[in-house]
Amino acid sequence: MAIVTPPAIVILGRGALATARRVQALYAGAQVHALQGRVEGDVAFSELGVHLRACYARGTPIVALCAAGIVIRCLAPLLANKGAEPPVLALAEDGSAVVPLLGGLTGVNVMAREIGAALAVAPAITTSGELRFGACLLDPPEGYALASLAQGKRFVSDLLAGATTRIDGHAPWLEAVDLPRDAHARHAIRVSAQAWNGNPDDLVIHPRSIVAAVGAPCEALAQSVHRALAARGLAPLALAALIAPASQMCDGALAQAATELDVPLRFVDTATPTPEAVLSALAFGADVESYAQNEGGIGLACARAPLDPLALGRARGKLTVLGLGPGRADLLTPAARAALDDATDIVGYATYVDMAGPFRADQQRHATDNREELQRARHAFAMASEGRRVAVVSSGDPGVFAMAAAVLEALEGSDDAHWHAVELAIVPGVCAALATAARVGAPLGHDFCMLSLSDNLKPWTVIEKRLLHAAQADLVMAFYNPVSRARPWQLDRALEIVRSVRAPQTRVVLGRDVGRPGETLRATTLGALRSADVDMRTMVIVGSSATRGIARGDAGEWIYTPRWYREET
Ligand code: SAH
C-alpha cells in the first residue's frame, strides 16, 4: 500500500539532523521530531518512549534515527495486541544503515528501499517473499484488498517452496514483479470482485470496484448489502462505497451501515440513486457490469477497475469544535487530538491554530487574526457543508467563553439546509480555570462560578450585578478576560465590588500562561491584589470565605476550598 500518512522522522541529537532532512525530502508533509533541549526540528518531544508510542498508536509511520534496540524496547508494550501496524524503521544517524522493523504489510520494505536508494545503502530486508520476488505480494496497492491474510501467507510459502503461479485478472502492479509464472500453473493470483471460493491454491485480491446504492435507509442495512453481494457471489471487500440520496444525510442507520461495511458513505442529489447513474456520471458507463435492483432496494454495480470513492458523489461534512486545553500537548485530550488528525481544514484564531499544529501538508489552515467569532463559525459551516471535515479550535474548553457557542449561534441563525445536515460535534478541553486550580491545589473544591469580565458582548451593568450576587453568595469566582487594553478600568471596579462584600484576607490565585512556556502562578489576597498584576493572559481565582492555604512539603502553599461548609454566624 502507498504510504498515505507522512512519517515522523525522530531524532535525538544534532548529529542526526542532516540525515533526517534527507529522508524528509522524500515524503511530502513529513516532519522531523526532535528531542527537546538537544536539537531543534519541526516538532519537539520530551520523552522518546512516550512519543514513539503516541505516534505508533496514531498509525503514524516512524523513521527513528537511533539504535534498532531502543525503538523495539520503546514499542514493545504495544506489540502484544496485533492491530493496525504502521511502518517502523530504524536508521543509523549517519545514514549508513536502514533497518525495517515493523509493518511488513503496510509498506515498511517499500520505505526501506526508498530511503536506501536516497542514501545509497542497501536496506536490511529480511522478509523471504520480498527477497525472492522483490515485492510484498500480500500488500496490494491502494484500491485493492487481500481476501485472506492467512491464505496469502500459505500461498507465498508455496511459491517459496517452488510452486509456480498464473495471474487471472488485471494486476498492473505485478507486471514488474519477478514471479515464477506459468500460464498452466495450479496456483493462481486472482484479481476479482468475486468472493474467494476457498480454493487453497488461489491468492485472491479484490479490486474495490463495487458501489451499492440505496434509496432509503432501512433496519439492518449492512446485512442487506451483504446478502445482495452474496446473492451474486461478490466479496464485501470489493465494495468501494455506499451511495445514498443527499436528503438522507443525517440518517444514523446509513452511517452505521457504512461503518459496519467499512466503506465511505457518499451522497448524490437524486432521490433514488442507481449505481448505474452514479458510475455513468463518472464516465465509467461502458466499463460497468450493472446489476438490477434487488428486493431490499439495494442496487449494485461493479466497475472493471478500482473506484476512487472520493470521485463518487460527496461526503457528509463534519464540523468539530474542540478545546486545545491550556497549551501543553499532554493536556490535549486524545479525542481532541483525533479530531485534529481527522480534519481536512483547521479554523481558528492564529495563536490557537499554531498551538494545535503541526499539520500535514494535506491539511489546510484557516488562521485569522480577527476576533470575529461568528464570521469564523460561518466560514467553518460553509466549508463543512461542501463535505469537508473542519476542526474549529479554541484554547481551553470550546464551550467556555469560546467558539462552541458561536458555532451554535451561527447555526441557529441559518436556514441553509446544508448547514443543518453537517455532522456537528463538540469535543471538550481543560479550561483555564481548571488548569490553574490544579496547579495550586483545589480552590474550586466547592461551589464556584466562572465570569467573563469582558463587556464586549454584555453590558457592564450585568457584570456588576453578577459580581455582587456571586460575592454575596460566597461562591469562589474564576475571572476570564480580566483586563485588556480596550478595557482598562473594569477590573478595578470589579474588585471594588467584591471587596465591598468579601474580607481583604480572602485568598486569590493568579495563573498566567498556565500550561504554556513562561507559566507563572501567584498566590495573593483580595486586599493585596492590584490590577497591574493582571493581564489578558491571566486567570484570576478569588476564593470564598472558606478558601485556605496549607504548607507544601517542598515550598509554598497548597490552596484549597474544603468540601464542607459552615454558615457564617
Ligand atoms: N476557552 C478558554 C477561555 C477563553 S477566554 C478556556 O476554556 O480556558 C480567554 C481568557 O481565558 C483569557 O483572557 C484568560 O483569562 C483565560 N486563559 C486562557 N488560557 C489561559 C492560560 N493558559 N493561562 C491563564 N489564563 C488563560
UniProtKB/TrEMBL annotation:
> Which Pfam families does the record match to this protein?
CbiG_N (PF11760), TP_methylase (PF00590)
Where exactly are the transmembrane stretches of this chain?
none
Would the keyword Protease turn up in this protein's UniProt record?
no
Read off the InterPro entries from this record.
4pyrrol_Mease, 4pyrrol_Methylase_sf, 4pyrrole_Mease_sub1, 4pyrrole_Mease_sub2, CbiG_N, Cbl_synth_CobJ/CibH_dom, GbiG_N_sf, Precorrin_MeTrfase
| Boundaries of every Cobalamin synthesis G N-terminal domain copy | 51-129
Sorted alphabetically, the keyword list is:
Cobalamin biosynthesis, Hydrolase, Methyltransferase, S-adenosyl-L-methionine, Transferase
Please identify the protein, giving its name as recorded.
Cobalt-precorrin 5A hydrolase / precorrin-3B C17-methyltransferase
Q: Which organism is it from?
A: Paraburkholderia lycopersici
